């Protein structure tokens, strides 16, 4: 029985590597298209159930398409801007902001829009929803609930795209489902801690070169399953039992924040960012040495959780106040 899984050598970021023109088509972009299609299909199912209808108004196909195109546009802008201006530490995009949406490297090679931030996409989608609802005079919270019912299902494919890209992998692990990603950091096998790790993982290093690529948590798949499928199933089951408008949006915001916060302990932070809060100086990012070492993603998730709880509290207090006055 293998003690780890080797990342398939035939998997590349490009779907058709080495083939002119077709080589520009990437798995990550394809997964975005699939994600939007799945979310759109589920949204239409909600509309068919009458989720957004009122006695005075019935949602049209034009409304659905207009809402989705607006939200997707804002989502992509937010995800890209956040990725380049918050997560990129080179300063390149601050000095040359026109490169944020330029799909080529400085030497002219096609790269696509490499780098998207979930939290930036979340903010962008939220702003897009508010913008569309205000412009169309639709109830913001009700439409936010509808969007929250379908976003996790689409999000699943975004994380699958990360796995197919061989990026955003996790920390090293001794678990038998650990994956050896081709572009992960390698370590000298002369290190004492690596010898201990190899013994626990059952790895034979006798034939290995000096630098060893170790198995890691497939954190992209953890996120696809828990932040995607599981969270979607919970919210979809609650769609006819929401307590008030905005309740499902709050469930999604808190649920994603909580699950992502935990999974971040298995996912390796960006090397150039490291930890934002650190209990011990120079804590290695490839190992989880303390629960007090928090990444950028975890801090943003804490903000999401706090904001959702505050929103629910305000809604409950507001609702109870209206009932008393009534």
UniProtKB/TrEMBL annotation:
Keywords: Cell membrane, Membrane, Transferase, Transmembrane, Transmembrane helix. The keyword Oxidoreductase does not apply. GO terms for molecular function: phosphatidylglycerol-prolipoprotein diacylglyceryl transferase activity. Catalyzes the transfer of the diacylglyceryl group from phosphatidylglycerol to the sulfhydryl group of the N-terminal cysteine of a prolipoprotein, the first step in the formation of mature lipoproteins. InterPro entries: Lgt. One of its GO terms (biological process) is lipoprotein biosynthetic process. The gene is lgt. Its EC number is 2.5.1.145. Pathway: Protein modification; lipoprotein biosynthesis (diacylglyceryl transfer). Belongs to the Lgt family. The lineage of its organism: Bacteria, Pseudomonadati, Spirochaetota, Spirochaetia, Spirochaetales. It comes from Treponema parvum. PANTHER family: PHOSPHATIDYLGLYCEROL--PROLIPOPROTEIN DIACYLGLYCERYL TRANSFERASE (PTHR30589:SF0), PROLIPOPROTEIN DIACYLGLYCERYL TRANSFERASE (PTHR30589). It is a multi-pass membrane protein. This is Phosphatidylglycerol--prolipoprotein diacylglyceryl transferase. A 1,2-diacyl-sn-glycero-3-phospho-(1'-sn-glycerol) binds at residue 159.
């Amino acid at each position: 029985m293998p003690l780890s899984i080797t990342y398939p050598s035939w998997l590349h970021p490009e779907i058709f590597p080495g083939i002119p023109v077709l080589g520009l088509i990437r798995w990550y972009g394809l997964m975005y298209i699939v994600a939007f299609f799945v979310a759109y299909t589920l949204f239409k199912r909600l509309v068919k159930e009458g989720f957004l209808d009122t006695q005075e108004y019935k949602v049209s196909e034009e409304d659905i398409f207009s809402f989705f195109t607006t939200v997707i546009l804002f989502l992509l802008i937010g995800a890209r801007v956040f990725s380049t201006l918050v997560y990129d530490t080179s300063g390149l995009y601050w000095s040359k902001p026109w490169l944020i949406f330029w799909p080529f490297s400085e030497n002219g090679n096609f790269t696509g829009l490499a780098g998207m931030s979930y939290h930036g996409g979340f903010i962008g989608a939220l702003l897009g929803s508010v913008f569309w609802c205000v412009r169309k005079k639709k109830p913001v919270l009700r439409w936010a609930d509808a969007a929250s019912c379908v976003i996790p299902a689409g999000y699943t494919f975004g994380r699958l795209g990360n796995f197919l890209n061989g990026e955003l992998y996790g920390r090293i692990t001794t678990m038998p489902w650990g994956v050896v990603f081709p572009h992960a950091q390698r370590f000298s096998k002369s290190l004492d801690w690596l010898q201990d790790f190899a013994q626990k993982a059952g790895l034979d290093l006798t034939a290995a070169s000096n630098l060893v690529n170790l198995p890691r948590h497939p954190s992209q798949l953890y996120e696809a399953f828990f932040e995607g499928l599981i969270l979607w199933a919970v919210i979809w089951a609650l769609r006819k039992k929401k307590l008030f408008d905005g309740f499902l949006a709050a469930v999604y915001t808190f649920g994603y924040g909580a699950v992502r916060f935990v999974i971040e302990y298995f996912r390796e932070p960006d090397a150039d960012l490291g930890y934002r809060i650190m209990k011990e100086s120079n804590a290695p990012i490839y190992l989880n040495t303390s629960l007090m070492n928090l990444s950028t993603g975890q801090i943003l998730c804490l903000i999401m959780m706090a904001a959702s709880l505050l929103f629910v509290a305000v809604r409950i207090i507001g609702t109870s106040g209206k009932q008393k006055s009534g």
